[in-house]
Each structure stands twice: as C-alpha cells, then as structure tokens.
Amino acid sequence: MPITPQQCQAGRALAKIDREELAAEVGVLPDVIEAYETELAILDGELAKLVQHSLENLGVEFLPEEDGFGVGVRLKVDRAGTRQIGSWEAEGGRVAEDDVP
Predict the structure, then answer these.
(1) Given this model, what pLDDT does residue 86 score?
(2) For residue 41, what are the contacts with CB-CB under 8 A and spacing of at least 6?
C-alpha cells in the first residue's frame, strides 16, 4: 500500500530533508511533492514507490494500519543510533552504501 500524504510529510520531518531535497531524490519538481502532501494531487504507483523508497533509504520506516490504529512513521534506528548518526553529520553528506570493506 502506498504511503499517505501525511506519512510523506512526517517522513521528511524525521529524515530532516525539505521538499526540494526529496523532489531531487525522486526526479520531480518540488511542486509535485507539495501537491501530494497537501492532498491536491495523487502520485501514480511508480512515483509513490520512488518517494517511499527514497525516504526509507534515509532511515524512515512506514508502519501499516493494524489493530484499529492508523498508519505511522518512525526512524529505523534507536536513540543510541540516532546519537551516533548525529555525530556523523559534520562529516558531510548522507550515510549510504560504499565500497569500504
């Protein structure tokens, strides 16, 4: 199931990126992300997957609706991991896959 506009907006907040950065990640104009988050537009299936995948690569986890509770969003790392990532922020760029053994 695709993420909701609210999950997209919350995911961006957790990942600490703005609409422009997310739009650049998925290859669309920032207006497309804004229209989706404000529920003025619906993303097609492939674009919705790209948006979700981009946010997941930044450590966002999307929670499905279950047991009568609505959908949710959280970071995949715990508090200790969050502190460690925070210490890396000054090193430049996002954490990503690399070739270092």
Answers:
(1) 59
(2) 32, 35
